[in-house]
Design a protein that fits this description.
seven-stranded parallel beta sheet; 332 residues; globular; TIM Barrel; 14 helices; alpha/beta
Length: 332
């Protein structure tokens, strides 16, 4: 089955030539070759590569380098700053770059709250003119997104990570879906889609995270699967998925061929796995967490094969206009 991930991050180790601005939970590095190996080992043909605002601010140069090396495997999204007077020109310039499918707004507590904010209007208006999706990170700001969707009905808006707070490290909140009604209300706007990304970090039970399925199916019912692209938000999600997963990790690794295991872990981690036997290291488990994020949705019940195909690739292809490269990747 064609599988496309709606959000992943790649990055180098922190170094003076491209210094980190913050810290992202997960491996010390997630380079382009390592991400491609993880995709291959998990049977994922491609992914939307979102430049990390936490590590690199508004600089997408590493994500661009990864795309240039693997143009059939990735598409590009970069964060933009609505407080920048030149943000409209930034969006227009970005739209002309090969591989670009969208931009990203971070509606954080420090960002603009007024739906009429001129910077937000510039981003949303220019993205619509350029045919780009606007990915919106908005925990606690879903009401503002509703107002923006009403003001900009021609803009393709994609809510990141179910629009809900997702922890980067344990514990999971007592009520992780408390704000679900506000998300479901956005289904009334046909220009709004919602990424089913990072959802596994909200699970209170172990793999395959069955406690997630009821609230997630409510999202499917409200929006329709064609507006619900699946994604992992890896590597950010790895900090949560390391918890209580040893048995699942071991079972997955034991079921892999030596070639697949080497592709996923690399030579160093492969040697550690062989030496450690049934006790994989933290570094090994960080890479395995990607496969867990994929497999959970492949075994998710209450979906027909047609529905699963829409969730795992079809919705993304429609929302981001990614077809030719994805089909080539599928035939690799």
């Amino acid at each position: 089955m064609l599988t496309l991930d709606a959000q992943v991050h790649t990055y180098e180790k922190n170094h003076p030539g491209r210094p980190w601005l913050g810290h992202l939970p997960g491996p010390d590095e997630a380079t382009g070759p390592q991400m491609v190996a993880a995709l291959d080992a998990a049977g994922v043909q491609g992914a939307v590569l979102v430049a990390s605002v936490i590590l690199y601010g508004y600089d997408p140069s590493y994500a661009e380098a990864v795309y240039d090396a693997y143009p059939d495997r990735f598409r590009l999204v970069k964060p933009v700053d609505p407080g920048d007077p030149g943000v409209g020109e930034t969006v227009a310039h970005w739209a002309g770059r090969p591989g670009v499918v969208g931009v990203r707004l971070m509606l954080t507590p420090h960002g603009p709250e007024d739906p009429a904010d001129p910077g937000l209007a510039l981003v949303l208006g220019e993205a619509a003119r350029r045919g780009l999706a606007v990915n919106i990170y908005c925990p606690g700001r879903l009401g503002q997104v509703a107002a923006l969707a009403a003001r900009h009905p021609d803009t393709n808006m994609v809510i990141d990570h179910l629009g809900l707070f997702q922890p980067k490290t344990p514990p999971v909140p007592a009520e992780p879906f408390a704000d679900l009604p506000a998300l479901l209300a956005l289904a009334a706007f046909p220009n709004v889609s919602v990424k089913i990304s990072g959802a596994c970090t909200m699970a209170r039970g172990p793999y395959p995270y069955r406690d997630l399925w009821d609230p997630i199916h409510r999202i499917f019912d409200a929006f329709g699967l064609e507006r619900c692209p699946w994604g992992t938000d890896w590597t950010r999600s790895s900090g949560m998925l390391l918890q209580d997963q040893t048995q699942a990790d071991v079972a997955l690794v034991k079921g892999m061929s030596p070639q697949d295991r080497l592709a996923l872990l690399g030579e160093t981690l492969e040697r550690r796995w062989v030496e450690e036997g049934a006790a994989p290291s933290k570094a090994t488990r960080e890479w395995l967490s990607y496969r867990l994020s994929v497999e959970a949705f492949r075994v998710m019940d209450r979906l027909s094969e047609s529905d699963r195909a829409t969730l795992m690739a079809g919705a993304l292809m429609k929302i981001y206009g990614w077809s030719e490269g994805a089909r080539r990747a599928e035939k690799r």
